[in-house]
Design brief:
alpha/beta; Inosine-uridine Nucleoside N-ribohydrolase, Chain A; 9-stranded mixed β-sheet; 12 helices
Length: 310
């Protein structure tokens, strides 16, 4: 069976880094054909650098290009999240400097060129950061939707409220205009939002199970998860949700999640609700809004994938 081609659009970020490690570990099922980065958790220079660090840690080379993308949101002022990811974006963990350079191709140009080339075998977009790159690519070349099988993204919230404001989740709040465009891009979308990711929390004991796998990649994943917990406990007195890795687990094991069909809009008017996602639940919706997960099995699947590193 042919592997599923995926492009990961991300802003590493502690949990983005674990998502990348999990995706590369699942190379028997997933073919990562590119990584595009965007400013978000930390500024754009750092997110691109962090993606290169994780690419090399996972054992991938320049055949998986890292393409640096939008340095600022489409319309709003830039926001970052160093309080939850450390000043480097990777929890200030001392990783080796990346040796393989980033691609010279801009992320938006890479998306347009690659998705036009995948029309015969559409690729899946996995989005774990602000959605600026995808929105810009879809405006620049609307025909790229024919090269997209589906979008699986981490973003938004409904019943849980927000994590950056009372109403808004960070990835959407960081560029709500882009998020509104992506939610309505015209392809199937699956959403790992706070309603579901807040159900999936990795305890310190589970982190040590990852560490016990023993490979340098698993140890790094454990360090990243532990840093997430430390920062989350300091800010909110609870261990961290497994936000971004849930997108990869949803690709591998969609049976571990349940949700409702919806159409989703985003509040782009200034005010208290700025950046809020508004799902309208309806049977003809093209968005699958997840609201339930088997948390233990999600962790077990991630553990199993990370266990493939030797």
């Amino acid at each position: 069976m042919r592997k599923r081609q995926i492009i990961i659009d991300c802003d590493p970020g502690l949990d983005d880094a674990v998502a990348l490690l999990t995706a590369f570990a699942a190379s028997d099922t997933l073919d990562v054909i590119g990584i595009t980065t965007v400013a978000g958790n930390v500024p754009g220079d750092l997110t691109a650098r962090n993606a290169r660090i994780i690419r090399e840690l996972a054992g991938a080379g320049k055949d998986v290009p890292v393409c640096k993308g939008a340095p600022v949101p489409m319309l709003r002022d830039a926001v970052t999240a160093e309080d939850f990811h450390g000043s480097t974006g990777l929890g200030n963990i001392d990783f080796p400097k990346p040796r393989i350079p980033a691609s010279r191709q801009h992320a938006v140009n890479f998306l347009v060129k690659t998705l036009r080339a995948t029309k015969g075998f559409p690729a899946t977009l996995v989005i774990t950061g602000p959605m600026t790159n995808i929105a810009l690519a879809s405006v620049m070349a609307p025909d790229i939707t024919r090269g997209i099988k589906e979008i699986v993204l981490m973003g938004g919230a409904d019943s849980e409220g927000g994590n950056i404001t009372p109403h808004a989740e960070f990835n959407v709040f960081a560029d709500p205009h882009a998020a509104h465009a992506v939610f309505n891009i015209g392809v199937p979308v699956r959403v790992l939002n706070l309603d579901v990711t807040h159900q999936i929390r990795t305890s310190d004991q589970q982190v040590e199970r990852v560490r016990a796998l023993g490979s340098r990649q698993a140890i790094a994943a454990a360090d990243l998860l532990a840093a997430s917990n430390r920062l989350e406990v300091a800010a909110k007195a609870r261990v961290a949700p497994l936000h971004d890795p849930s997108t990869i687990i949803a690709l591998l094991r969609p049976d571990l999640f349940d949700g409702r069909k919806a159409r989703v809009s985003v509040v782009t008017e200034e005010g208290d609700r700025f950046g809020k996602t508004v799902p309208e639940y309806r049977e003809d919706g093209h968005v699958l809004w997840y609201d339930k997960a088997d948390a233990d099995d999600v962790f077990s699947e991630m553990l199993g994938q990370l266990g493939k590193y030797r």
